[in-house]
Write a structure and sequence with these properties.
7 strands; 5-stranded parallel β-sheet; Rossmann fold; 313 residues; alpha/beta
Length: 313
Amino acid sequence: MDRDFMLQLYERMVLIREFEETVKFLFLEGTMPGTIHQCQGQEATAVGVCAALRPDDWITSTFRGHGHALAKGLTPQELLDELFGAKTGCCQGKGGSMHVGNMSKGMVPGIAIVAGGIPLAAGMALAFKLQKKSHIVTCFFGDGAVAEGAFHEGVNMAAIWNLPVIFVCENNLYGASTRVDLVMKNPRISDRAASYGFRGETVDGNDVLAVYEATQRAAEECRAGKGPVLLELLTYRRTGHSRRDPCHYQPKDEREAWAQRDPIERCAEQLGLDETAREQIQQRIQKEIEAAVAQAKVAPQPTPADLETDVFA
């Protein structure tokens, strides 16, 4: 793999980690309104997937979408403006943390309903197929979404019509506080693809190159008209389901074991980055985020008149 490309992947993961850590403290300080659902520890899933997509491909996201947004090309500034409720935010201050996105960059604003993005992704892919376009849609969702009826409906629709969708299950082992093996007799989620008649694959979701290569293969199949692919990315969130969640249900030894598989550290080792190089990258990104926070705090807020914009019915 080209070193410069790998370095881009590494820096994008560090950007997501530093963004999330900054947002965490802004929320705990009471500086930032609303609530947050964060993705520390899952950076490789977002970065590896989005790096394998073309700029005109699309993604659907969830309420845990900061990493997806940064990986798809949204800037820290437009995201922080959105989190502060500013008009200059990616959704003009109307979405907040749970609904970030930018249609001009191929990201539908996040859908907070569990599994809500799955049938939407299938519908988008059907439109692209009917229009004879080469775009594909990548749909992010968590392991908890697999138990929803929308999963069956959306995946089955994509299967019977050979739609160009990559279904990306970020299996972080917990649906909120419930462990995956308590709600599934067969916890290997990729196996479910076979029952719909298409390919599924389980991937180390903390290895950014493995995720990138698996997504590349899936994208090629989708563009070739072979139908959808289900990628199960095994990962682990190092934070609670939301900021109100202290994670007491995660065993200490489990947390420590996954910490040893940190995606950013693993990528740094693959690149051979020493401590000095890592610190330089981290400090440069921290300064970028600090500047964005300062600007977001004084960004213009919506006015009452904005209530009448973006309304269709």
